[in-house]
Amino acid sequence: MLRAKAPDMGILILSGYPEEQYALNLIRKGASGYLNKDCDPNQILEAIRVIALGKRFLTPAVADLLAQQLNRPADVPLHEQLSDREMQVFLKLARGDTVSEIGEALSLSVKTVSTYRTRLMEKLNLFSNSDLTYYALKQNLID
Fold it and tell me: How far apart, in whole angstroms, are the C-alpha atoms of residue 123 and residue 136?
């Protein structure tokens, strides 16, 4: 929403979640940078300065995540990069199971299931549960 109203505004996300859970997804959606709240205060200042110049600020961890995506073979379906547990959660979500139902079925907490959901959404470049279902149908992973 911020990008739509002010396309030139820099957006720095300061989050309590580790980079691998949200950073790439938020940067794809228009954030200029992402920092974990446990970062060094000087890094926040550096990020603000870089973003104020109209550039993006990437920590080494986020840059590494981006580089990992570039190294993926183009002809391999994205879902083949999911861990076994991520694939289990993915298929259950795609079939319409709730996070609570998945947690109960797999003996996981709701928070853990939500973390798996976030990771697999990022790996698959998807943004909603309906996107998950559509992807699974298109790849013939569910009926």
Answer: 14
Q: Residue 62: how many CB atoms within 10 A of its CB?
A: 21
pLDDT per residue of the chain (143 residues) written in tens, 0 to 9: 787 788 889 999 998 877 766 787 788 778 999 998 889 999 999 999 999 999 999 999 888 888 877 776 666 788 888 888 999 999 999 999 999 999 999 999 999 999 999 989 988 989 899 999 999 999 999 98
Look up the pTM and report it: 0.56
Query: Which two tokens mark 120?
Result: 């697999």
**For 107, left (φ over 0), alpha (ψ -120 to 50), or beta?**
left
- Cα of 124 vs its chain's centroid, Å: 9
Q: Where do the domains of the chain lie, and which CATH numbers do they carry?
A: 2-70 (3.40.50.2300), 78-138 (1.10.10.10)
Structure tokens at 86: 């991520």
C-alpha Rg value of the chain to the nearest Å: 17
Chain CA centroid to CA 3, Å? 18
